[in-house]
Amino acid sequence: MIVLFNFAFWKMHPPNCVLMSVLLMIADGLIVHGPSGPLVAPLGSSVVLLCYVNELLVMEDLEVEWTRTDSETLVHLYQDGESRPESQQQEYRDRAHFFTDQIQHGNFSLRLDNLRAEDEGRYTCRVHSQQDSGETVVQIKYVERLLVSGSDEFMSVGEDVTLSCSVDSHITPEHIEEVSWRKTDGDILVLLFQNNKTLPDSSDEQYRDRAELFTAEIPKGNFSLRLKSVRIEDKGVYMCLVFAGGLSANATVVLERLGFSVSHIMVLILCISASGSALLLCCLFYCRSPYKGINIIICCTSFGT
Ligand SMILES: *[C@@H]1O[C@H](CO)[C@@H](O)[C@H](O)[C@H]1NC(C)=O
Ligand SMILES: *[C@@H]1O[C@H](CO)[C@@H](O)[C@H](O)[C@H]1NC(C)=O
Ligand SMILES: *[C@@H]1O[C@H](CO)[C@@H](O)[C@H](O)[C@H]1NC(C)=O
């Protein structure tokens, strides 16, 4: 845009009237375009963050910088005629693809591959040319996902047990339509949660008044189930099934009985027979292993002759 400014400088002495016309080039800034609205894409997919100009730019000294608007993290930098991966944040090194062949057309779009939940946010595309610079902001609103996870548990008859189920989604927990806990053998409904409410009356008789969710944990996406006064027949495979935003996902957890296995008993017999007349000290430890919940370690120590 060209603006003509007329500055009239009136000096206090009437004969010395100076009129100055100053022609100023006001840098209006480059108009950089982005997508028409926020983007929504599935987890693991590729998404193109649009950024382009509708005018011809001098390629020389052209610089394009893609950053996260929130953290100022550098996603991609094009400088001195090439991409500069060394200056880019590690997490984008292999995932951000710049279309170098498109630059001459004024297209500075960036493709982000293998989309992650953390990619949600705003991105700024800054274009600096010799005379001008401008920017646009692109928002990744949601990375669509519904991931349900759980872990196996051991039970002791008569005690309470917690079967875990956590939901990670672009849909906030209060917008989850349904979560149901089922025992897979026989497809028995243990507990139903629908439209923000637990419906205890819909539970199968054998779980009536024994199953509940942790109300305070639900807003965190934690739909773990508390099963009270566990019975032998509760042993088995359970499924936590979630419906949200047209998607569904589930996790299965195994509820196993705590007990001695044949191999443990064999070790114990071996220990006793090997120790002969010696004083034998056998101790049982219950300890949690990362794999199977509870393992029993049998430790034998012999003293004397
Ligand atoms: C810019 O290039 C990308 C990748 O090839 C393409 O998807 C997009 O449509 C192009 N945009 C314009 C405005 O040419
Ligand atoms: C749950 O409650 C929230 C607000 O408390 C509401 O916005 C949402 O629509 C409700 N979800 C369902 C599935 O009814
Ligand atoms: C869910 O809540 C239960 C009960 O408070 C807790 O034991 C469990 O660790 C929680 N799970 C997660 C993943 O936070």
Automatic annotation (TrEMBL):
Q: How does it sit in the membrane?
A: Single-pass type I membrane protein
Residues of the signal peptide: 1-29
Sorted alphabetically, the keyword list is: Cell membrane, Disulfide bond, Glycoprotein, Immunoglobulin domain, Membrane, Receptor, Signal, Transmembrane, Transmembrane helix
Regions that span the bilayer: 236-255, 261-287
Q: Cellular location of this protein? A: Cell membrane
Question: Alphabetically, which GO biological process terms does the record hold?
Answer: cell surface receptor signaling pathway; cellular response to lipopolysaccharide; immune response; negative regulation of T cell proliferation; positive regulation of T cell proliferation; T cell costimulation
Q: Does the keyword Transmembrane helix apply?
A: yes
| Residue span, Ig-like domain | 15-141, 144-254
This chain belongs to which protein, by name? Ig-like domain-containing protein
Q: Which GO terms describe its cellular component?
A: external side of plasma membrane
Task: Tell me the SMART domains matching this sequence.
Answer: IG, IGc2, IGv
Gene3D superfamilies listed in its UniProt record: Immunoglobulins
Keyword Glycoprotein tagged:
yes
Do you know which Pfam families this protein is assigned to? Answer: V-set
